[in-house]
């Protein structure tokens, strides 16, 4: 009798876990934004300022009650200014990327879900580095492309029937390939660089690894 009750309880729990969370064919719009800034001054009158900005959005569709697939686009910009009189250093970095993603959702509690996303991406970057030493300015420009795959887990809260609030732990596992080309304003030299990387954010979890965003659930039609 006890075994029968245990088996029935297990079957009931399994039914609850596997029941439909979202509608097949339902479309989803995702978005997120990040912003960071800092300024520091040393005892040698050297000042350093930093500004970073990121924007991402995506469009997906549920192909099963807990499996979402789609495409996304993202843009990031960061700039740094360091002044150590009479020297000046400035950097400006930009990156735009496209990605394909596959996300699986599973219920945690009422209106809470945990999810894991696998994504494949490609990006193009263009950066500039300005250095002024003794009134002589040198401009270094770098552009390149990269491709990669990444795994990102997270938690969603269903605020209402149309909005999900998301928190993610970005780049748990990342494999990537990059290729860059660098030119110099005061030289005909051209540097080319290719690299392959495999990394994980688990060895250095900080606020930069945590993402906050939202999803909008649309009607099927």
Keywords:
221 residues, mainly beta, eight-stranded antiparallel barrel, 1 helix, 72% strand, disordered N terminus
Give an overview of the whole structure.
- The chain is mainly β.
- Helix content is 8%, strand content 72%.
- The protein has 1 helix and 10 strands.
- The protein has one helix at residues 2-18, and strands at residues 27-41, 47-64, 67-84, 87-109, 112-133, 136-158, 163-169, 173-184, 187-199, 210-217.
- Strands 1-2-3-4-5-6-7-10 form an 8-stranded antiparallel barrel.
- The protein is elongated.
Distance between the termini: 49 Å
The strands making up the biggest β-sheet line up spatially as: 1-2-3-4-5-6-7-10
Taking all residues together, what is the mean pLDDT?
83
Biggest sheet statistics = 8 strands, antiparallel, barrel
Shape: elongated
Give Rg in angstroms. 23 Å
Number of E strands: 10
The percent range for strand residues is over 45%
Count of DSSP H/I helices? 1
Low-confidence stretches: 2-20
The helix-and-strand class reads: mainly beta
| DSSP helix fraction | under 10%
SSE sequence, one letter per element? HEEEEEEEEEE
Please write out the topology.
Elements lengths: L1 H17 L8 E15 L5 E18 L2 E18 L2 E23 L2 E22 L2 E23 L4 E7 L3 E12 L2 E13 L10 E8 L4
Concise summary:
Helix content is 8%, strand content 72%. By secondary structure, the chain is mainly β. It starts with a helix and ends with a strand.
């Amino acid at each position: 009798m006890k075994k029968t009750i245990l088996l029935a309880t297990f079957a009931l729990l399994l039914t609850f876990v596997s029941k439909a969370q979202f509608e097949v064919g339902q479309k989803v719009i995702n978005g997120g934004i990040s912003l960071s800034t800092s300024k520091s001054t040393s005892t040698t009158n050297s000042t350093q300022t930093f500004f970073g900005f990121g924007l991402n959005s995506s469009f997906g569709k549920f192909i099963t009650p807990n499996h979402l697939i789609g495409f996304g686009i993202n843009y990031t910009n960061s700039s740094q200014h360091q002044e150590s009189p009479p020297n000046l250093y400035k950097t400006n970095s930009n990156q735009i990327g496209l990605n394909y993603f596959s996300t699986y959702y599973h219920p945690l509690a009422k209106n809470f879900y945990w999810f894991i996303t696998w994504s494949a991406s490609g990006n193009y970057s263009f950066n500039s580095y300005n250095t002024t030493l003794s009134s002589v300015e040198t401009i270094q420009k770098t552009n390149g492309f990269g491709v990669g795959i990444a795994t990102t887990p997270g938690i969603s809260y269903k605020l209402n029937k149309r909005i999900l609030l998301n928190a993610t732990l970005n780049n748990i596992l990342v494999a990537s390939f990059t290729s860059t080309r660098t030119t110099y304003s005061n030289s005909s030299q051209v540097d080319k660089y290719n690299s392959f990387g495999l990394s994980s954010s688990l060895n250095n979890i900080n606020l930069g690894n945590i993402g906050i965003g939202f999803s909008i659930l649309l009607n099927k039609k």
